[in-house]
Write a structure and sequence with these properties.
- The structure holds three protein chains of three kinds.
- By secondary structure, chain A is an all-alpha fold.
- Chain A folds into two domains: 113 residues, Up-down Bundle (Four Helix Bundle (Hemerythrin (Met), subunit A)), CATH 1.20.120; 40 residues.
- Chain A is built from six helices and no strands.
- Chain A is globular, with a radius of gyration of 20 Å.
- The longest helix of chain B is centred in the C-terminal third of the chain and has 46 residues.
- By secondary structure, chain B is an all-alpha fold.
- Chain B starts with a helix and ends with a helix.
- By secondary structure, chain C is an all-alpha fold.
- Chain C is elongated, with a radius of gyration of 17 Å.
- Classes of the chains: A mainly alpha, B mainly alpha, C mainly alpha.
- Chains A and C meet through helix 1, helix 2, helix 3, helix 4 and helix 5 of A and helix 1, helix 2 and helix 3 of C.
């Protein structure tokens, strides 16, 4: 039982549990918190896959930024009466069946594919390579990403304006 | 100079050109008198050309292919010129010309647009009749046959605002159509057997055809309809709803004679089927007698003349059936002249007095002597008094029927001769002599009407004299002439006794002959029978078809559209507008793709 | 031994759970949370493949995906807020103006 194996199983359990909680809990606030937990667990998965840079990015952007935004959104869309948003779901069984079917389909492919392979050796920290790639082959994409973020910013600003 | 062929073509083409001009150029047509003058000019040219062709004795044939096929055209159009067609050309163009001139005065108080329409139809009719007469084959003849029927419908129903006229036009169309169905079936059967429509070829090939009697009988049916033989004679009296010049032209001299003309033209074919000929003779003679009885009890002057026409057509057909087609054709020509004369004179009377009813006329001879004279000339010709034209042609017919040993028809025709004289002189005595009745003051007709009358009367006399001098081809039995003279005189005397002198009371006479009187007054119930059959069969069939159309044909479409609508509103539920439902759809699609990919492996 | 398939199965599970959330949540924000989970699963997939094939392209792809997702969440929530202002509700069932 290597550390890797134990770590994987623990992180996997946390991830799955918090994901289920995200979609099942009636209280929306709690759902957001559980999402935060799931995002952190995902970051841990990245760590297990030897990508510390990605782990950091995940925490910063997702667990930090996205969760904050969602919390604000929930607060703003709450009824002015002030009660917490109760959340009930509909058509649970239908959804469960469809999701289970999709999973079964994907898993069917996975289990049949020849995937079991050992990890190749990794030469040290990948962060430098990532940096070089970003300003190298992927420079154009990088810049376009910047444009996209500006666009999103302007769009969000537009929507955030009050009524005229 | 134009060749004879060119002249022959000129005869039908000029009225056709006039028709086209009048039909297309609205303002010209609506001038009324202008349209009339154009039409009259065209028919004059046509008549002149016809005269030249006839006097030259041109004989020939020229056809052009119409429906092309591999082994030569299936059908042709063209002209077939021989003495038969030449004589008809002259008759048709002459009577048309006189009638069109006459109409200028008779229809003088029509609206100009209406008058223009009248002359358009007249030109079309003349063209159609000439095309029929010149037809080299059955197909062209049939096409123009139908055209002539169409013109008859248009002209009978000329005053279409009058319901009686509209009904009469439709009736004429229906009844003749019954005959035409047989006609076209016969033509097609003949073509199927011989492969040709042309007369000249048919005459050679017809012997080999099996079932020829049936085919010729079917073709004869067309003549039954068009020439108003029993039982398809009922349309002719009702056709008197049209203007009198129309009756003179179409229902005396030209259109109704098309049937006789067709039988005469196809004489070599009919000669091969003697049983059909016998039938033709019997039906013709019976028609003659039947119509004559109905004329004896008519009070409407035009109706009397209409029944008289039916009767005389029976004479012509009987002659054709007896194998004496030439005699029948001679009677056609002479009858065309004096019947047109009688109709036009009657028209002058009607124009002056304002009514058709002879019992509301009287003593007209004093007021309109010229009209009276020409009417009497026509009556004498119709009754068969020498030396007028009708005598010779009637002689020929009777002689021909006797020669063929058809005793039954002969007796019927003889009795008809007596009745003919009787009913015509009855009209003469009631309308022209006796006490003056007329409410208004009848006056002599204008010159435009009197001119044609005198011309026709003169021609009747002239043709008669010509026939008297020329002598006939047949040697009739010696006792025939005195017999027919006696019959004519007997009819005259009876009419004179009843209506001029009052020696015999008409009322007691009719009670004495009560059964005939009863039947004749009700036209032997034939019209009523047609009415019942029409309502039952035709209208019933129409209702059935209507039901099928509404509920089955439309029903299919309606069901389809209703299903579509229902399916649409059912399927509309898919568009719930909720994004989550659409995600369901996407997920489902992904599932399908996965399944398909699994299978494909 | 944790092979590639383990990571992939884990990602598939998270994806299905996210899909379930999208399909069943009533609140619009709840649906967005489900979408977040699905995107997360995709990221795990990308990184796992990148690691096991020794190719950094997957990692770069993941970086971009994360950034884009952040932008998408921001705009999406802005829309939700705008809808809430107009319709006074964010319940997905009520937002059916495109109903046929």
């Amino acid at each position: 039982m290597t550390v890797e194996t134990v770590g994987f199983w623990v992180v996997a359990t946390v991830l799955l549990a918090s994901s289920l909680a995200v979609v099942l809990t009636p209280n929306l606030f709690h759902a957001v918190l559980y999402l935060a937990a799931a995002l952190v667990a995902t970051g841990a998965i990245f760590l297990l896959l030897d990508q510390p840079f990605l782990f950091a990015v995940q925490l910063l952007l997702y667990a930090g930024g996205v969760v904050t935004i969602v919390v604000f959104a929930i607060m703003l869309t709450e009824r002015l009466v002030g009660e917490r948003i109760r959340q009930t779901s509909r058509h649970l069984i239908n959804g469960a069946i469809v999701s289970a079917a999709v999973f079964a389909g994907i898993a069917g492919f996975l289990l049949r594919a020849p995937l079991a392979m050992p990890r190749p050796e990794q030469a040290g920290d990948a962060t430098a390579s990532i940096g070089r790639a970003l300003v190298g082959p992927f420079a154009v994409t990088f810049e376009l990403l910047g444009v996209l973020l500006v666009t999103a910013l302007i769009g969000a600003l537009y929507f955030a304006r009050g009524e005229e | 100079m134009i060749s004879n062929l060119g002249l022959t073509l000129l005869v039908p083409v000029t009225p056709f050109a006039a028709f086209l001009l009048l039909a297309i150029v609205g303002p010209l047509r609506r001038t009324g008198r202008g349209a009339g003058l154009l039409s009259i000019t065209a028919i004059t040219i046509s008549f002149a050309a016809a005269l030249i062709v006839w006097t030259q004795g041109f004989v020939g044939e020229r056809t052009w292919g119409w429906i092309p096929a591999d082994g030569g055209p299936i059908a042709t159009v063209g002209v077939l010129v021989d003495p038969l067609s030449n004589a008809m050309l002259v008759l048709v163009t002459l009577v048309s010309l006189l009638v069109q001139i006459y109409s200028l005065a008779y229809l003088s108080d029509e609206r100009p647009a209406s008058l223009g329409r009248y002359y358009t139809y007249q030109s079309l009719f003349v063209f159609s009749m000439l095309g029929l007469v010149l037809a080299p084959g059955f197909l062209q003849m049939f096409v123009f046959w139908e055209l002539v029927g169409l013109c008859s419908y248009l002209l009978i129903g000329f005053w279409y605002e009058r319901p009686a006229a509209a009904r009469a036009a439709v009736k004429a169309f229906w009844i003749t159509k019954l005959g035409d169905v047989g006609f076209i079936i016969g033509i097609v059967l003949l073509w199927a057997a011989t492969g040709t429509f042309e007369f000249t070829e048919l005459f050679e090939k017809a012997q080999a055809v099996s079932g020829l009697p049936l085919i010729m009988f079917l073709i004869y049916l067309g003549a039954v309809g068009k020439s108003a033989q029993f039982p398809l004679h009922v349309w002719l009296p009702d056709a008197m709803e049209g203007p009198t010049p129309v009756s003179a032209l179409i229902h005396a001299a030209t259109m109704v004679t098309a049937g006789v003309f067709m039988v005469t033209r196809a004489e070599p074919l009919f000669a091969l089927v003697p049983e059909v000929l016998t039938l033709i003779a019997w039906v013709g003679a019976f028609t003659a007698l039947l119509a004559a009885t109905m004329a004896c009890v008519e009070g409407d002057i035009k109706r009397v003349l209409a029944y008289s026409t039916v009767s005389q057509l029976g004479y012509m057909m009987a002659a054709a059936g007896a194998g004496a087609a030439q005699a029948g054709f001679l009677h056609l020509l002479t009858h065309g002249l004096f019947k047109a004369l009688l109709f036009l004179a009657a028209g002058a009377v009607i124009h002056a007095v304002g009514t058709n009813d002879v019992f509301r006329m009287g003593g007209l001879f004093r007021a309109m002597p010229q009209t009276g004279i020409v009417f009497i000339v026509g009556t004498l010709a119709l009754a068969g008094v020498p030396p007028l034209a009708g005598f010779f042609s009637k002689e020929a017919v009777l002689g021909g029927v006797w020669e063929a040993h058809l005793t039954g028809p002969f007796l019927m025709l003889a009795l008809t001769a007596l009745l003919t004289a009787f009913y015509m002189f009855r009209v003469v005595f009631i309308a022209f002599f006796g006490r003056a009745f007329a409410a208004g003051h009848p006056h002599e007709a204008p010159w435009l009407m009197r001119g044609p009358l005198w011309l026709l009367a003169a021609l009747t006399v002239a043709v008669g004299l010509r026939l008297a001098v020329g002598g006939s081809e047949h040697e009739a039995p010696g006792w025939l002439v005195p017999l027919s003279l006696a019959l004519a005189f007997a009819g005259f005397a009876l009419a004179w006794a009843m209506y001029q002198r009052g020696l015999v009371d008409p009322a007691t006479f009719s009670t004495a002959l009560a059964p005939f009187d009863f039947l004749a007054r009700r036209r032997y119930g034939i019209d009523a029978l047609y009415g019942v059959l029409y309502r039952a069969l035709v209208l019933g069939f129409a209702r059935l078809i209507g039901w099928i159309d509404r509920y089955l044909v439309d029903g299919v479409l309606n069901v389809l559209s209703a299903l579509t609508l229902r399916a649409g509103s059912g399927l509309r539920g898919i568009q719930s507008g909720r994004a989550q439902d659409y995600v369901y759809g996407v997920a489902f699609g992904v599932l399908l793709l996965i399944v398909w990919a699994q299978l494909w492996r | 031994m944790i092979g590639l398939s383990s990571y992939l199965v884990l990602a598939a599970l998270v994806f299905s759970i996210g899909l379930f959330g999208v399909l069943t949540r009533r609140n619009a924000v709840g649906i967005l949370l489900g979408i977040e989970l699905m995107l997360n699963a995709v990221n795990i997939n990308l990184v796992a493949f990148a690691r096991f094939h020794g190719d950094l392209t997957g990692v770069i792809f993941t970086l971009f995906t994360i950034s884009i997702t952040v932008a998408e969440v921001a705009v999406g929530l802005a829309i939700v807020i705008a809808i809430f202002r107009v319709r006074r509700t964010v319940e997905a069932d009520r937002l059916d103006l495109l109903r046929g």
